[in-house]
Amino acid sequence: MKISLTNIEKKFGHAQVLWPINLELESKFITILGQSGCGKTTLLKILAGLEQPTGGEIRFDETMIYSSKLHQNIKPNKRNIAMVFQDFALWPHMTIFQNIAFGLKGIVPKEGIPERVQYVMNLVKMKGYEKRKPGELSGGQQQRVALARALATNPKLILFDEPLSALDAVLREQMQAEIMQIIDELDCQAIFVTHDQTEAMTMSDQIIVMEAGRIAQIGTPEEIYLAPATPYVADFIGKVNWFEKGSYIVRPEGVSRIQRPGTIAKFATIIKSTFVGDRYLVQAEVEGKQWSFYEAQPIEHGIKLELFIDKKQIYQLEGSH
Ligand SMILES: Nc1ncnc2c1ncn2[C@@H]1O[C@H](COP(=O)(O)OP(=O)(O)OP(=O)(O)O)[C@@H](O)[C@H]1O
């Protein structure tokens, strides 16, 4: 789906929180990155219809979702969007099943609800917990249920507002990988707000960097990293926790995604990496099938990795130490 924003702006009283924003978004996994208070949440809420812009237009493909001129404003529940927040609230007195089923009334025929709940509980690896109450689950498990609940309505777009910031580092990485997998599997798009640069670099197809209510840059992680548009972006991205040995994930289009060692990536899992002479030799499993080798070469600003399978170069990426 193409999400188009034309001159979307927002004032709270006299405070201009978003300056006219123009964006066309088509990528599957988009992150919005920026310092606290730069307007990330406000932009998400505007997309979801929970906050009304002061002016501008929003279209999803050719459908006008919001237009200040035409007085068009499609209601949140008709936008086919779901939101996952950090401080999601599950109903404490309802079972997990009821928590998810609740939002499906009127969307899924009654007899189809158990099957849908099963499907999403499977996706988030929470099968078997349907009869429990939220209080019986850990924070991470509750977060999975919140994700399942969002997925259950079969949205075209899922908006994540710092959903992982309350989790500890290990759980956070695990959830990052799982969310990426789930979004890859489902026919939907995601916009993910974070102020964690590494998280944005790791997860996104496209990154929007915001600064004080404006778009500072939009691009792939590689573009933003290699060619920051402004000193602010350079400084902000410079804080990324770049790579540890064996921490590369490679995608066919050459976009680098970086994860910590041991993390399972969709495209390549680093099994072992050793430094031999001036090169890293990296053994990797690619797309669950083949044993392969990387050769990594130090270059001016970092490392260049090339992955060969049967002597044919299939993936390449560059990155910093
Ligand atoms: N309902 C509101 N009324 C008045 N001001 C608001 C309101 N909501 C947000 N703001 C202000 O708008 C600005 C942007 O807030 P927003 O929550 O969108 O930022 P953010 O980038 O998501 O920040 P954080 O990373 O801290 O969540 C802030 O200065 C905030 O104080």
TrEMBL record:
Q: Name the Gene Ontology molecular function terms of this record.
A: ATP binding
Question: So which domain of life are we looking at?
Answer: Bacteria
Q: Where is the ABC transporter domain?
A: 3-237
Q: Which UniProt keywords apply?
A: ATP-binding, Nucleotide-binding, Transport
Q: Does the keyword ATP-binding apply?
A: yes
* Gene3D superfamilies for this protein: P-loop containing nucleotide triphosphate hydrolases
The protein here is known as ATP-binding cassette domain-containing protein
State the taxonomy lineage: Bacteria, Bacillati, Bacillota, Bacilli, Bacillales
An example Pfam family from this entry, by short name, is: ABC_tran
> What residue ranges are annotated as transmembrane?
none
Q: Does Transport show up as a keyword for this record?
A: yes
Do you know which SMART domains this protein is assigned to? AAA
